[in-house]
Specification:
It contains 9 helices and 15 strands. The protein is of the alpha/beta class and 440 residues long. It folds into 2 domains: 319 residues, Alkaline Phosphatase, subunit A (3-Layer(aba) Sandwich); 64 residues. The N terminus is likely disordered.
Length: 440
Amino acid sequence: MAKNTPDVSRRTFLRGTGAVLGLPFLESLSFGATAAELPRRMAFVYFPFGVALPKEKDKDAAWNWFPSGEGKDFKFRRTLESLEPLRDDVTVMSGLSHPRCRRLGGHDTGDTWLTGVELKAPSYGNEMSLDQLAAQYIGAQTRFPSMTLSSDGGVGEPTRSTTISFARTGRPVPALSSPKQIFNRLFGESGGEASARRKLRNTRSLLDLVLNHSRTVRGRLGSRDRGKFDEYLDSVRDVEKRVELSQKWLDVPKPKVEAKTLDLSATPDGPKEYIRTMYDLMYLAFRTDTTRLATYMIGQVAGATTIANSFPTAVGLKGNWHGLAHGGGKNPEALGKFDQFLAAQLAYFLERLKDTPEGDGSLLDRTLVLYGSSNSKTHNNQNYPTLLAGGRGLGVRQGQFLKYSSKTPFANVFVTMLDRMRLPVERFADSSGGLDELIA
């Protein structure tokens, strides 16, 4: 039996099949590592405007987003039929929503999907999103604490954000939208390491001076000003943490991935290629352990101003996404076909994760993927279409359709996910506990 050799590191590269990747977990290189030490990951994928929900008695009932049946005895309808091969790896949930967000405007809830906050005028202040909370615990274990993507990019504006990630202060985390830019950030060569080290050392020295001097300054302030000053110091400490993390990873080579393995020229003008490339980038980020947390906002809720609004026409459907959603009651088949298109792209992502071995299972077994919207029908902030995939290696029970009443907060899903990630968080937003039905 070959013995483990300590000169073969976790960052050893694997060359072949047109790509060079950081090695996954390998038992022969584990040096005694157990399954409990394998990475735990989460991905969050959001789409706007809700889904087709024709009634059971309607002739178009086959286009209802939710399956028929219940529990283990369920059947995907046409919308989610591409997930049939992944049946044992997914759970669909109905009835869930954020209670504090139900009264918000129908196009105001994209900002709240991962926060559960009721946005109020005039500040429309938000709070930290689920992915960023998790990043506080596990973000330092990878080069990038989290990965924030959207089709529109940037941050947008309050109630019309183009990101679903929000920092500890409630400020939006800017999303990247260019596949080429994302690839270069994750895997591109970064020259000038010596210069970067000098800048980081200088930055760290300045931060030390600021924090040391702050003790003297704070003592001279009144109680009202101390609150503002402490908020400022929190921002300085956040910068300090980022500097420390950057220093840590400067000497670690990035995983090498050949750009030709991806369609980096994809743009929102070609939705299928673009969405799949975004999923490919998330997959590679997980595969190379470059990050363990990712969010992707397929489209924002600003109606005609969102880039993704034109996605349906590019796949052969008449009208824009916002228009399809508003007409979903009269023509559920049209909206259902677009729901079907989005589900097929999700299935592509999940299958890539499932086909990648890791330990005694797959990448999907140790990755939780939450997929859904903050509307059921457009302008309706209840009964979120919700799907949780993966995580069977983390003790998640899958292969179900679970129906909940409106009394169950959507944040209970978050608490369950955090529990399976082994993070010490018992509550989030207005959660009332975990969901036992999801625990294996």
